[in-house]
Each structure stands twice: as C-alpha cells, then as structure tokens.
Design the sequence.
C-alpha cells in the first residue's frame, strides 16, 4: 500500500519542491496551504504522516500540532521551522512533533526524515524480535509499540516511545544527549535540546512527580539514565 503524506505549507515554492521529492520517493502526496484545511484533510482521510510548517495563515502549525495530538490515531508529524526559531522548534516538540527540520533544508534530508519516522511508526523492522520491557508497573512492548503504566496505556509519540525503550534496555547506564540523538533519532549531529524536551515530556507521563523523577534520572554533566524501580 502506498503511504500518504499530507504537506501543509503556504509557501508555493517550498511546497512544490517538497511534494515533488516525496512523490519521487514513492509517496502519495496531498497539499494544503493553511491550518484549518489541514485539520479538515486529516479528519476526512488520516494520512500516514503530516509535514507541517509552523508559519501558516490563520491557524498556525503549533496549534495544528496540538489539535492533531488530541486525536487517538497519533498521526506522525514532521515540523518545518524557520532557521533560528528555537522557541517554536522546542514548543513543537513539546506539543508532540516527532521530528523537525529548519528552513532552508535539503529536500533529500526531508525525505530521509519522513522515511525514518514512518519506519518507526510501522513497528519492528523485518526479522527483529519484539521485546517486552518491564519495571515497577511500567511495561513496554516493542512489537505493537504499546507502553502501559499500571495497566493504563500511555499516549507516547514515536520518539518518546523509542527513547523510553532505549533507556529501559540499558538500566542504570548514563547516556550523553549526543549519544541519545544518535541512537534514538539516528542523527550524527543536531540540537541536543531535542533530547531535553523529550525527556521532560516522558517524565510527565511516567513519573509520579515529574519535578522529582525516580525513573529517568539526570546525571549532571553527562545526560540521563533509567533507574529501575524493581530491585
């Protein structure tokens, strides 16, 4: 089945290039130019992924992202931000974007990011053995990509799920943020605040008191580690 990508951008030059590259990569692409049209398109026929610009007329991309994250289907989102707009980028990640690119960007890199996010959304790669990671009432099943805390399913984005699974696979081991960017995001370089934002969001979902985390600990001067609750 051909995967569908919805491109939301009011810049005709950018959207034409993005759509052309995605179509050439084998995706079926739909384009809309504003936030309300994006929400209507997703409601009518949910795509496999949304490429979403922050700067949109009327309803901006951040509000569109927030509303999409209220949907139960959890459509993956790759956000496009203007270079230097760190606040928008961080807020987009806080609202649940799975990835982002800063303009100007390479269309080929965008295709690679889209491919990576869709691959993660599809579950385990062929031949991989699904895992069940459990600790202190927290259970992560990598096959169906489901995480539960004391029986309650957690609403995690793709990157949040992958980050949690990676940390739980290596309990009590400290990871630098650059290491996590490489191992979870697959980035050789990038904004390390991306990791910080995702750790903050994870803590809000798995910690009793996110301000005093017990599971995902900060290792000052290094990064983060998962502290087992059991044992």
Sequence:
């Amino acid at each position: 089945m051909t995967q569908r990508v919805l491109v939301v951008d009011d810049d005709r030059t950018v959207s034409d290039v993005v759509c052309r590259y995605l179509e050439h990569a084998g995706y079926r692409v739909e384009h809309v130019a504003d936030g309300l049209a994006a929400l209507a398109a997703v409601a009518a026929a949910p795509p496999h992924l949304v490429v979403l610009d922050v700067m949109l007329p009327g309803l901006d991309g951040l509000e569109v992202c927030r509303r999409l994250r209220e949907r139960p289907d959890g459509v993956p989102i790759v956000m496009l931000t203007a270079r230097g707009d760190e606040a928008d980028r961080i807020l987009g990640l806080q609202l649940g974007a799975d990835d982002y690119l800063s303009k100007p960007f390479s269309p080929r890199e965008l295709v690679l990011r889209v491919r990576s996010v869709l691959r993660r959304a599809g579950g385990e790669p062929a031949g991989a053995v699904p895992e069940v990671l459990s600790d202190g009432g927290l259970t992560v099943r990598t096959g169906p990509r489901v995480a539960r805390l004391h029986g309650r399913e957690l609403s995690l984005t793709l990157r949040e799920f992958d980050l949690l699974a990676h940390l739980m696979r290596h309990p009590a081991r400290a990871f630098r943020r650059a290491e996590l960017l490489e191992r979870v995001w697959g980035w050789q370089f990038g904004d390390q605040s991306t990791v910080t934002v995702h750790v903050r969001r994870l803590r809000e979902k798995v910690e009793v008191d996110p301000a005093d985390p017990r599971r995902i600990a900060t290792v000052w001067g290094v990064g983060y580690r998962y502290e087992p609750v059991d044992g």
Observations:
- The chain has two domains: 4-121, 132-226.
- DSSP finds eight helices and twelve strands in the chain.
